[in-house]
Amino acid sequence: MGRGVATADASLQLSKGRWINNWDAEDPAFWNSVGQKTAAINLRWSIFAEFLGFVVWQLFAIVAVYLPAAGFEYSTSQLFWLISMPSLVGATLRIPYTFMVARFGGRNWTVVSALLLLIPAGGLALAVANTDTPFWVMLSLAGLAGFGGGNFASSMANITYFYPAAQKGWALGLNAAGGNLGAAVAQLLVPVAITVFAAGSLQLPMAGIVWIPFILLAAFGALRNMHNLSNARSDLRGALACLREPHLWIISSLYIGTFGSFIGFSAVFPKLIADTFTEYSGFALGTATITLAFLGPLVGSLARPYGGKLADRFGGARITLASLSLMALITVGLVLTLSTSNFWVFLGLFLILFTASGVGNGSTYRMIPAVFALRADIGKDSVGAARKSAAALGLISAIGAYGGFLVPQALGLSVSRVGSYLPAFCVFVGLYLLLMAVTWFCYVRRGSIFAQQGI
């Protein structure tokens, strides 16, 4: 329906299946009367469903630490595969998930994607109940946990349709931060769930069972309260055009360094603590056990919105460069101090590293629309800045998530081959320095068109 109808009616035109046929967030009358309230409802349930997606995405990384104590005879290399496989599958799923909202509707796909989380959560509960479970079964279920990683792309694509341009950044920032917090909450509550009623033995099935009621609630809430938008359209041409855009791949590499580090270190942090500082891997709280590993993803998630705010003020490229610089410096600190066996120095450095990666997540993501808009202004964009920027947001989020696979694999390879994590951290320092150079040369260097425009 046209803008005039939306203004005159100032109401939702709903058809069967909760499809809205007259959505126009850019019309002030429509937005102020029914649009803002409707968008907020969809945002809340989207955040809840995406939050659970991140929870499930992290489950196998958390449980892997406890498998040897529970009697599972998996090698160190196999444990790291369980930690990294969800990120590999989740990153890959983000590409098709980006187009699912336009194909099936935001409400419908939120219900489906939430219910899919029951497979890895329930499968984990069954698999860890039997120490004879073959590794290939456990690895397959870890791959299915990637459903949770895919949710981010469809959730972000859905919410961007609901909000006017002036409020998209705020809404998407809330959506992303709320989802990222799932990693922290999972690492806090899963150790409690598997130990609080343990009575001397780990109750690993609770790691999956405890989330099943919440998954069902998210699916039911989305079914009852969310909406589909008939004007949501996927842009395959825009996505294909993005693949030919060099800045897609440049910013994707930066996002691997920032978000990839965040999700990769989030997954491997419990294992790093357990291997390096065994006595600090868990603290008794009554009959339950808690671990401080949740602090890493917590500070990283909370820092992400501030990365966007700083980027708005100082430019995304400058904040990304500063974040990568701090990440390189802190990683050097880890290399120099890891042999001192001081847990609190280790924890403090890692919390700064997580914070820097969170800030870099927000600033790098903020660069995407600015870079594509400038490319359009200088005549390098035949498809259009808005279309390519929207497609790039999904593609870059997918490519960046592969860092969640590469980080644990590098650490696992390092400890399996030489018995130490130090070589992997040295590699990370080199990669951060390389990404710093790329950021400076492409976007910050004096004389660059992007630097002149404060990208």
Number of strands: 5
Reported by name, the CATH topology of the largest domain is: Growth Hormone, Chain: A
**What best-fitting shape do the alpha-carbon axes yield?**
globular
Span of the ends, CA to CA = 36 Å
Poorly predicted runs are: 1-9
Summing up helix and strand content along with how strands pair, one would put the structural category as: mainly alpha
Helix content bin = over 70%
Strand content: under 5%
Mean pLDDT: 88
- Tally of distinct domains: 2
Compressed to H and E, one letter per element, the order equals: HEEHHHHHHHHHHEHHEEHHHHHHH
CATH homologous group name of the largest domain: MFS general substrate transporter like domains
CATH class of the largest domain reads Mainly Alpha
Instruction: Characterize the largest beta sheet: strand count, sense, and whether it forms a barrel.
Output: 3 strands, mixed
Strand order of the largest sheet: 1-2-3
**Continuous helix count:** 20
Rounded to an integer in angstroms, the radius of gyration calculated over CA atoms is 22 Å
Query: What is the CATH architecture descriptor of the largest domain?
Result: Up-down Bundle
How is the quaternary structure best described? Answer: single chain
Can you describe what's shown?
With 455 residues, this protein is mostly helical. The chain has 20 helices and 5 strands. The protein has helices at 3-9, 28-63, 67-70, 76-104, 106-116, 118-127, 135-144, 146-162, 165-195, 206-209, 212-225, 236-243, 246-276, 295-314, 316-337, 343-377, 385-401, 403-418, 422-444, 449-452; strands spanning 14-15, 19-20, 228-229, 283-285, 288-290. The strands form 2 sheets. It has a 3-stranded mixed β-sheet with strand order 1-2-3. Strands 4-5 form a two-stranded antiparallel sheet. Helix 2 packs antiparallel against helix 11 and helix 16 (343-377) packs antiparallel against helix 17. The protein is globular, with a radius of gyration of 22 Å. The two termini are 36 Å apart. The model is unreliable at 1-9 (pLDDT under 50).
